[in-house]
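#structure-requests
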Amino acid sequence: MIPAASKSAGRAEAERLFAAFQAAGAVPVEADLLLPAETLLDLYGEDIRARAYVTSDPLQGEMMLRPDFTVPVVQAHMADGAEPARYCYMGEVFRKQEHLGNRASEYLQVGFEVFDRDAPEAADAEVFALFSSLLAGLGAQALTGDIGILMAAVRGLDTTDRRKQALLRHIWRPKRFRALLDRFAGRAPMPAARAALLDRLATGSPEDLIAAAGSFIGLRAPEDIAERARALTLDAKAPLIKAPEAALLYDLLSLQAPARAALSHLRGITPMLPAIEPAVDRFATRLEALAARGIAVDSLAFEASLGRTSMEYYDGFVFSFHGPDGMPLLASGGRYDALTAVLGQGRSIPAVGGVIRPQLVAGLRQLCEGAI
């Protein structure tokens, strides 16, 4: 395990990275420590409570200690930012940890974000190449992926819209996504509790069953419960995802290869899964842009499932940099075009960015120099 450096060494490293981002054309921005919980809950659902510190303000209502910078930076840009734009930031973020260990609940982040609608793949390459140069000489291991290809594959499935939306909603929860895919493809039985509920629903209309249940307790209105019951019954009658389509999706989930080889593999399966063709074309364009910036794409690691346990806004290119032996995570980032539409009040712009953890980088630097 690579030890984190002292706070003073981490702060010095953060200042170095922050200056480098500004030299690359980024405008420094700041974000409040306390953010409105409503915005984050709308984006991520109640799951965010397990990762964020929540408090209550008598005037502003429920608030969260800043879990990251991306959301407030996007909000600020969409409110009055010029185009194209590059931003950088430095400060603490807060992540609740479920277990005691080496994972910090408060740590420094330094980040760089690009908003540019003219050449998104070139912007991807710009951010990745900049991070690669800043971590050069430390033995950092780069890994790339593209959630957009997996999302395109799901949207192209020959199944109901409800099932596609369920898969897309859980794409950042790999275990839940796999369980749904297994069930929708007939590779796993329906959960016993759901099967029992469907058996019960088959005995009468939802309204009759609600009325027979007696007194009503709960936040959902009876008509909402009835509608949900009908949706469950309808979903149970949906045909299974065809075996060839399911096999291709399982193949995507497990795809790990050097980037050029991964592109060749994806080109090979595109005729059988044509919905991914635009995303694969973007992948190819990105590789050329990376190569033009001196990145050795023939050996650059690619993993199609990378980024699926991160914050739930990445929807395209993703990347990470790890220390030697795969630990710890020094830096990560990716594309989040859809987030700008959600926060843009009717506007959107392609956007990509990433963060570096300076205290870990400083610790690795000291280790490489023999200081610790």
